[in-house]
Amino acid sequence: MYKELNSILFLINVFFIFGKECVIYLRYRDFTLFVERLAFGLASINILCVKIFQAVALNNSLIDEKTNNKLLQFTDNAPWCVSDIDSQDLIQISEKYNLQLKDDNIVPINSGMISLVFKAFKKENLQPVIIKMKRKNIQQKLDNAIDNLLFVIYLLSFFPFFNKYQLAEVINKNIEIIRHQTNFLEEVDNMTQIKNNCKNLKYVKIPSADRRVTEEYPNFILMDYIEGIKINQIKKEDYEGFAKQVMKFGFVTTIVHGVTHGDLHGGNILFIKDNKDDKYPYKIGVIDFGIIYQLESEYKGLLFEILTQMFELPSRESAIKLLNSGIIDPPGILRQIPKNDYENIINFTSEIIDETVKNSKKANQLQIYKFISKLKYYLSNSVLSKIGIRPSDNFVKTQLVLAMSHGVTLTLCNNDFMTLADKVINELFHINMICE
Asked: Which residues sit opposite 101 in a β-bridge?
């Protein structure tokens, strides 16, 4: 009963915030101010809203540049208060490891959904380090936020538009992954694993963390400090250089290593221009490994084959490979459906590939939602629904990774993702040489 009452109160607060901000908007007619105030208000009552704003930030198809810049504050400056800070342990760690907090103040330099970030210096050599601290009582706040979100999803499921894209399934399957962000020992291990996987990538910097600190203080991570700028500070002439490195990191970690960053929004990438390095003047620093995705080996291999051939093969052939890559469960199910339905699924998948690769030049979660929507339509007849065909867990993971990262990549690619992706794939895997 408590959960239901809490969720109803949350919904009332949401309507109150929306109503209040709409009244203010009608008075001042300032859309950017409306979005900023609305985002801050919603994030204050449900921390999961921060994750939504991180995904929306830089999505140029939805909001203008001025509004984007306001939402970017939520990528590393989410609302926080003094009661979130465990000052006692923070001071204790600083003293034990001979650190001096920046300006001797207990004020975070960045704030995310789960944690607060403090900059400190080693007293013996003034080397900068980062102390990442879990917000106090974050587990309970996160549990309440998830309960409220699931309640809202339940209500939205009655609306055809929301149900059409199966957003509820995507969110439900990733709830447990979001919960794992509060496990700092797991995050340290994730960071170490991907850092080791990427040790030969000279254009990627990943911090090292002292696991002993987290073992003793489970709510803290002590790690290297990486100097870099944010995406909204990059000069236009440097966009393509940085875009290639972000895409290379994504391709290599996904289809080569099968272990990829699951939360690669603008706040988790630092951009480093190194004019002293002729070979790799553009570098990226990747941080925050609270969410990673591990892909099954067979699925990873099939993705590699599809990705490296998509620009060369006819769209129908690519569609057949894609549908048999493991994006649909149960395995081999397409061989059991009527031929007419099979052809329809192949045809609309071919159309989406054509639109993505040849026409729109965009690859984002909207294309995936379109695919899911059409797939669901064809599977809704009585014969196919009994078979139990559905998008696979691997496909859902891929969808969420793309949802979090596409704002960064599309911005840096000037919305021409596929053209640059073709260049990057050829640079990484020398596909042109293989095809000749």
From this structure: 120
318 neighbors 354 (Cβ within 8 angstroms): no
Neighbours of 432 (CB within 10 A): 13
User: What's the whole-number mean pLDDT along residues 373-397?
Assistant: 66
Instruction: Give the count of beta carbons closer than 10 Å to the beta carbon of residue 219.
Output: 17
**Residue 426: CA count within 13 A, CB half-sphere:** 12
In this prediction, residue 318 carries a pLDDT of: 82
Global model pTM greater than 0.85: no
No. of helices (H) and no. of strands (E), the chain: 20, 12
CA dist 53 and 419 (Å) reads: 27
Q: Which H or E run includes 116?
A: strand 115-122
Residues 6+ apart with CB under 8 A from 277: 202, 283
The pLDDT of residue 433 is 36
Tokens representing residue 1 in the block: 């009963």
Output the CA–CA distances (angstroms, integers) from residue 319 to 69, 324, 354, 417, 420, in the order listed.
Answer: 37, 9, 10, 20, 21
Q: Residue 144: pLDDT above 60?
A: yes
Nearest to 204 by CA among 125, 277, 129: 277
Non-local (6+) Cβ contacts of 120 within 8 A are: 94, 99, 100, 101, 102, 128, 129, 130, 131
H-helix segments, 380-415: 382-385, 393-412
Q: Are 162 and 170 in contact (CB under 8 A)?
A: no
Alpha carbons 231 and 269: distance in angstroms, whole number: 8
